[in-house]
Amino acid sequence: MIDDILDELQLENQLKVEDIPDLELYMDQVIQLFERTFASSKRNDDEKVLTKTMINNYAKGKLFFPIKNKKYSKEHILLISMIYQLKGALSIKDIKTTLEQLNGKIENKEIELEDLYQHFLRLSNNNIDRFTEDSKVCSTEVKIEANQLNGVQTEYIEQLLLVSSFVQMSNLYRRAAERLVDEIANTNHSEE
């Protein structure tokens, strides 16, 4: 069961630096790039990976530095990709707090975003490997627990326990991430 689920998740889908053209893109082109890259990761065909409204909200929320002439640079696209990954667990406010210093460093040319993004992707790949292994271990533990139930063992019970375990792990990681965001916010306020 777990191997099929992991295969269906298409965890390896990532927007790579080399996938992004070296020229600036209009919003529709950015959306097409994301749709092509992450289409197989969608839960269903009705789900949108990225929309104009999302990008406009990111811009209004100052999640990335201002665009010029309605065109998005490679740096904008890399930031949007990072936002895409972060938005699954963090609020827009937390994402802004997390990326605020990075945006300033990009604008002041203090950091090479492509290099940072390559490290981000390597860590993402490591996380995929870790998640795959942890999911298999969790699935085995769930089977053991489900088998210990008195005559109630069904596929549904295993699924229920596995969903509960995944959600709890997700919540624990989210809470840890939020704590780090709070530390970033406190550091930003103390530097002002």
Automatic annotation (TrEMBL):
Keyword Coiled coil applies: yes
Coiled coil (UniProt feature): 92-126
Matches recorded under InterPro entries: DUF1836
Keywords: Coiled coil
Keyword Coiled coil in record: yes
Protein's UniProt name: DUF1836 domain-containing protein
Species per Swiss-Prot/TrEMBL record: Ornithinibacillus halophilus
